[in-house]
Design brief:
280 residues; alpha+beta; Porin; 2 domains; globular
């Protein structure tokens, strides 16, 4: 049978359903209004109307993301030695590794609440690289995170010392981030601040910003700025700027920075910082 004859016996292709695309458009509008529950319902309805629509894979991805209860991340930061930071993001101090696991009972809530467990540990070695793990620095924590608005959260947690140099204390922390496209430039900003301890109150704050241009093969390159301050036994701070290059493949990100310390005296000094991270 020739291809032209086979085409005569092929089942007719159904035209895309406008109703499915209308439902999906309404779902995206719900997302813009932060109505996650209504958005999920409309994505589900759009897929029921036309499961073979050209945009169906994107709708399924959005639906899975909206309904996801478990999430987590892990990272390894390689840089020179420095003090242990009080914040969650590895913006202060030396090389370290860490990870977290979160469970959100109702991910479709407008302001979802999650139970979060995390752990961090510093690397041994005075120079760039990983000479080993400093077991005395092992810090674990268990807490509750409330997403006040998209991109911003408030967390209360209990630090649980896993090593001799770690702490047992309460922490109250706020954090937020945003990402925007400015023409071809991708701009990402993150900041956090908090207080550690009920009796001896130590405070911390840090922020980072990156502006990057996309390159082929999942690469991007640009510049970044990093600012950190913490007030514990003494007050220390640092401000860094420098070039950055990254590579993304699905949930995995690898990034190399050269951070020039332009203000402050917190160790380490100027030098490279390599980060490998994964999220799910």
């Amino acid at each position: 049978m020739s291809p032209s004859q086979a085409a005569l016996f092929a089942p007719p292709r159904l035209a895309p359903s406008p109703a499915a695309f209308d439902l999906a458009a309404a779902a995206y509008a719900d997302l813009a209004r932060r109505d996650r529950r209504s958005a999920a319902s409309k994505f589900e309805a759009a897929l029921a109307v036309d499961p073979a629509a050209s945009n169906a894979p994107a709708w399924r991805t959005e639906l899975r993301r909206l309904r996801q209860q478990w999430s987590g991340d892990a990272y390894i930061l390689v840089r020179g030695a420095g003090p242990t930071g009080l914040g969650v993001a590895p913006l202060f101090g030396g090389g370290q590794s860490g990870g977290s696991l979160a469970f959100t009972p109702d991910p479709l809530a407008r302001r979802p609440i999650a139970v979060v467990a995390r752990a961090t540990v510093a690397h041994e070695g005075k120079d760039f690289g990983i000479a080993g793990i400093d077991r005395g620095s092992l810090q674990t924590a268990l807490g509750v995170r409330w997403q006040v608005v998209p991109g911003a959260s408030l967390t209360a947690e209990r630090l649980i010392a896993g090593g001799s140099a770690a702490r047992d204390a309460w922490v109250l922390r706020t954090a937020g981030g945003t990402a925007h496209k400015l023409g071809p430039v991708q701009l990402d900003v993150y900041a956090e601040a908090g207080v550690v301890g009920a009796r001896r109150r130590d405070t911390f704050a840090s922020a980072q910003a990156r502006a990057e241009l996309p390159l082929p093969a999942g690469l991007d390159a640009g510049g970044g700025a990093w600012v950190s301050i913490q007030n514990a036994a003494t007050t220390v701070h640092r401000v860094d700027i420098g070039p950055t290059i990254g590579w993304r493949a699905g949930p995995i990100t690898a990034r190399a920075d050269w951070r020039f310390r332009v203000a402050g005296d917190a160790a380490p000094g100027s030098g490279p910082a390599l980060t490998l991270s994964a999220a799910f």
